[in-house]
Amino acid sequence: MESKGIRNDEVLAVLRENAKRITAPKRAVIDVLLGADDHLTADEVTRRVQQIRSEVSPSTVYRILEEFESLLLVVHSHAGQAAAVYHLAGRSHGHVTCEMCHVTFEVSSSVFDRLARDLMGSDGFELDRHHVALSGICARCRD
Ligand SMILES: [Zn+2]
Ligand SMILES: [Zn+2]
Ligand SMILES: [Zn+2]
User: Fold this and answer.
1) Rounded CA gap, 73 and 87, in Å?
2) Alpha helices (H) along 21-112
3) Residues having C-beta closer than 5 Å to ion ligand 3
4) pLDDT tens across 41-90, in order?
5) What is the pTM of this model?
6) Could you tell me the domains of the chain?
7) Residue 140 and residue 137: Cα distance in Å, rounded?
């Protein structure tokens, strides 16, 4: 199991360093992201936050996710036509998504080493390994 990379106190330290207020909704978003072992859409983050603090609105959660992204605490990724998914930064990996069951899987970042090298060598293009998922059919659906 890969480590989460970033801890609660590290998130709070970055917020303090950047003179951001640490509000109860932000603490709830951090708790949800730390407790998630998968990739959550903003709606899913909102639902889980509202289980802790029912008064937090979806727009508040979106704003918090944006702020966390601008501080490089959170990253998002796209899988197919589905909504963007979010998780804490610090884990280096790529994504593949199954077109049949729509599950997004993490794959080792090294899977993209060759592709990244070739793109840089031939086109000077720098690959973002994390942002967009490759699509295909997962092992379970192929059975
Ligand atoms: Zn994006
Ligand atoms: Zn991811
Ligand atoms: Zn599948």
Assistant:
1) 9
2) 24-35, 42-52, 58-70
3) 98, 100-101, 138, 141
4) 999 999 999 999 999 999 999 999 999 999 999 999 887 667 888 988 87
5) 0.79
6) 8-88 (1.10.10.10), 93-142 (3.30.1490.190)
7) 8
